[in-house]
Specification:
Blueprint: E1 2-10, E2 13-18, E3 24-29, H1 35-46, H2 51-55, H3 57-60, H4 66-69, E4 83-89, E5 92-105, E6 109-112, E7 120-123, E8 128-136, E9 142-151, E10 159-164, H5 167-170, E11 177-180, H6 189-200, H7 204-214, E12 220-224, E13 231-235, E14 242-243, H8 249-262, E15 268-271, H9 280-296, E16 300-304, H10 308-317, E17 326-334, E18 337-343, H11 345-353
């Protein structure tokens, strides 16, 4: 579990450090202050030998331009200074450090003529940027991996990620992290795959209990292949079964979070705009259920929110928590610099009593 996390030269962060992290970490702040970018930095750090974690970030935001996917990672779009991501945690005194920088890639391409033409033309295209990940773990072992993003065919959104890495050196070096965006399909193919794995292991009822906080009438979930792709259906004791996407955004959201937690034992789950689709009347119960589930799988939660009610009900859910597992961080700007102000349960209680703006 992470205790502190530092970000330098990434997205909109010149230099930011968050300290005192708990099991449940809520992140608030004004629009365009960097809440999602902080989750992205944590996501990249959770996959320190996988360039795809960094190269896919723009795709998740709806951008499909390989020329800018690397440039957009850097503070001020300036890749002359390396990105530095550093975490201290319960693995020991030494940090886990990741540096990200770029280098030119003058790859040689070969083009062969048509039938009957034995000419072989060799040309070097314009230099292409490589992204380089240099990861130093707590034992002092370093791994360097390179990657790039390029178009595959004529489809502007059909992109491929290339790698240069030693599979033996990177084996076992990845943490388990799952990123859930604030928008997109209510239930993804990954959700269906994750639920299927739980059902194979006989653990599907664990997720069902969390969903019953939102939908008490829910009796079971099942995966059915009734079309070109399998779908997840909900059984409320009536006929016919209902596709989960039609049961409401709140249930889909909680299902995705629960499945991510169950699929990331010992790792982290990153949730952008966690309150989406949830009514305030169930938020406290939902937070209690998520916390219990996260404890059982030893998962650390990082979630952004715009909702004061979401923060308040998280505070209420952990009001009797003696282990102080919940933290709220408000990102704001002071003297031209971004900072993360931490509120533990006690400090949050004082803020709510005084009517301070917490979100």
């Amino acid at each position: 579990m992470y205790h502190t996390f530092s970000v330098k030269n990434f997205r909109g962060f010149d230099d930011l450090t968050i300290e005192g992290l708990g099991r449940i970490n809520l992140i608030g702040g004004k629009n365009n202050i960097g809440k999602t970018a902080l989750l992205e930095a944590l996501w990249v750090h959770s996959g320190p030998t996988d360039p795809g974690h960094a190269l896919r970030l723009d795709l998740a935001r709806g951008l499909a331009d390989p020329d800018s996917a690397i440039k957009n990672l850097f503070y001020g779009f300036d890749s002359s200074s390396a990105i530095e991501l550093c975490a201290h945690g319960d693995w020991g005194a030494e940090p886990r450090q990741l540096m990200i920088y770029t280098e030119e890639n003058p790859r040689i391409q070969l083009s062969i003529g048509g039938p009957g033409n034995d000419r072989l033309d060799i040309h070097t295209p314009n230099p292409q940027k490589l992204i380089v990940l240099a990861y130093l773990d707590e034992s002092g072992e370093e791994t360097i991996v390179k990657g790039w993003l390029e178009r595959d065919g004529d489809n502007a959104r059909n992109l491929t990620i290339g790698y240069e890495r030693d599979e033996a050196a990177t084996a076992g070096r990845l943490l388990t992290g799952i990123f859930l965006s604030g928008s997109g399909p209510g239930i993804s193919s990954q959700d269906i795959e994750r639920y299927s794995r739980l059902e194979i292991d006989g653990r599907q009822d664990e997720v069902l209990q969390i969903l019953q906080v939102v939908e008490p009438a829910l009796q079971r979930l099942t995966v059915l292949a009734t079309g070109p792709e399998p779908r997840l259906y909900a059984d409320f004791g009536t006929k016919p079964l209902i596709p989960v996407q039609l049961t409401g955004e709140g249930m889909s959201r909680i299902l995705s979070v629960a499945l991510a937690i169950a699929s990331a034992p010992g790792g982290m789950v990153l949730v952008d705009e966690i309150e989406n689709g949830l009514h305030y009347t169930v938020m406290e119960k939902v937070w209690k259920a998520i916390a219990a589930f996260a404890r059982s799988y030893d998962v650390q939660i990082f979630a952004t929110t715009h909702s004061r009610e979401c923060v308040y009900h998280a505070y209420r859910a952990f009001e009797a928590d003696e282990e102080e597992e919940m933290r709220f961080y408000r990102i704001d700007r002071a003297y031209g610099k971004l900072r993360a102000v931490m509120y533990n349960r006690k400090k949050l209680g004082i803020a709510f009593e005084d009517g301070l703006g917490i979100r």
